[in-house]
Write a structure and sequence with these properties.
mainly alpha, two-stranded antiparallel sheet
């Protein structure tokens, strides 16, 4: 079930369950990898800016995180963490993300973590109970993470 767009192009979870096997755990590990990469990049920027980046850590981390996520999602429909885990995001037509989908997905992600516990918890629960293992942003946009097809 989606709220805004159709998901007819996504693999059917009943007929093609292999696309969704282990997705929740893989997304969690990919998220940890991405956070570590963003933290390392923010640390490097702190050094390169002669410690100014350390004083403005939240702003630099947010900016680097947004740029990293939008660039990687619009490029190959997966962040580096997702690529390592063998998953990618697909739109409701089953196609890889374009720039607009990447921006909307990242905006949804940051909107959900802005309110901290409740939306993040609701998104995690949604991933556990929906057929396509979709988080809140995925449900709103009609997108889903799938195991990368061979």
């Amino acid at each position: 079930m989606t709220f805004m767009t159709h998901t007819d192009g996504l693999p059917c979870p009943e007929r093609r369950p292999e696309f969704y096997d282990g997705i929740v755990a893989k997304r969690a590990i990919a998220w940890v990898i991405d956070v570590a990469l963003i933290t390392a990049m923010t640390f490097a920027v702190g050094i390169l800016t002669l410690t100014v980046g350390f004083f403005l850590w939240p702003l630099f981390s947010l900016a680097i995180g947004v740029l990293y996520r939008v660039a990687t999602l619009s490029g190959r429909s997966a962040t580096w963490g997702m690529r390592l885990m063998g998953i990618e995001l697909r739109d409701g037509r089953g196609e890889r993300f374009d720039g607009l989908h990447a921006v909307l997905h990242v905006a949804g992600y940051y909107a959900s973590i802005l309110f901290m516990v409740l939306p993040a918890l609701a998104s995690a629960v949604a991933m556990l109970v929906t057929d396509r293992r979709q988080g809140l942003t995925d449900l709103v946009l009609g997108t889903a993470a799938i195991n990368r097809p061979d």
